[in-house]
Amino acid sequence: MAKVHEKHSLLKSAVALLLILLCLVAANWQYNRGVDRHARNAVIENRISLPEIELTKILDSPRDYEWQSVNAIGTFDTSQQILLRNRYSEGIYGLEVLTLFNAVTGEKFWVDRGWVKAGATATTPPIVSALPATQVKIQGRLRLDSSLPRGAFFALPANGSGLISKLNAQSQLETRNFYLDLLEGSEPILTPAVPAALPELTDGPHMAYALQWLFFAGLVIYGRFLIRRSS
C-alpha cells in the first residue's frame, strides 16, 4: 500500500509540475507579446510625429519609414480600385477604398482613400468620391503591404479578385510592397471624409494575462501542498 501511495503521490507531483511549466510558458508568451506591442506602439507614435518626407527617400528601405507621412506626385488609376469590406466607422458597416497610384517616379502602389459607407444592399456599390484625372500631389501615411488589415477584398469593376496580389496578377500589375493611407492632397476632394484609422495604441491586456498565468501557477503549487497535507 505504501508503494501504491508513493506512486500516486509522484504522479500527482508530476501532473502539478507539468501544469506549472505550462503556466510559466503561457506567462512568458503573454509577457513577450506585451513587450512587442509596447515597442510597436512606441515606433508608431514616434514616426507619426515626424515631418513628412518625399517618396524617393523611402524607396530603398520602406520598412524603416512605416507610419511616417510621405509626399508623392502622380495620377490615380481609377480603373484599378479595391474595396476592402468588413470595415466599421462609429459602429456603421462600410468599406475601405484602395486605388492604384502611378507616381511620376515610375512607382505603382495602392492608396487607401479611407472609409465609405456600404450600399443599401449587398449588390449596391458604395458611393465613392471621384478622383481628378490630372496629376496631383498627395500626402499619406506609409504602410507595408504585409500590414494590410485582415479581411476580404472585392475589386470593382473587376469581378471579385481576392487579395491585392491576385488583383495584380489578373491585371498584370507589379506594385510596390507598400501603400499609403491618404491624409490629404493638392485638391480638397482628395482629403478623405473618414481617413484610415491608426491601430489602437495601447499595450493591451498582455501583462495582466502574464500575471494571471503566474497566479494560476501559484494556485497549482498551493493545491499540491494541500493535497499532500491531506493525504
Please describe what this structure looks like:
With 231 residues, the chain is α+β, with helices and mostly antiparallel strands. The protein folds into 2 domains: 53-190; 200-231. The protein is 35% helix and 28% strand. The chain has 3 helices and 7 strands. The protein has helices spanning 2-48, 164-171, 206-230; strands spanning 53-54, 69-89, 92-103, 108-117, 136-144, 153-155, 178-185. The protein has a 5-stranded mixed barrel. Strand 2 and strand 3 form a beta hairpin. The two termini are 13 Å apart. The model is unreliable at 149-163 (pLDDT under 50).
Q: pLDDT average, as an integer?
A: 82
Number of helices: 3
Strand residue percentage: 25-35%
Main beta sheet strand tally, sense and closure: 5 strands, mixed, barrel
Helical amount: 25-40%
Uncertain parts: 149-163
Number of self-contained structural domains? 2
Write the layout of secondary structure elements.
Blueprint: H1 2-48, E1 53-54, E2 69-89, E3 92-103, E4 108-117, E5 136-144, E6 153-155, H2 164-171, E7 178-185, H3 206-230
Parallel strand pairs: 1-2, 4-7
Antiparallel strand pairs: 2-3, 2-5, 2-6, 3-4, 5-7
Helix pairs in contact: 1-3
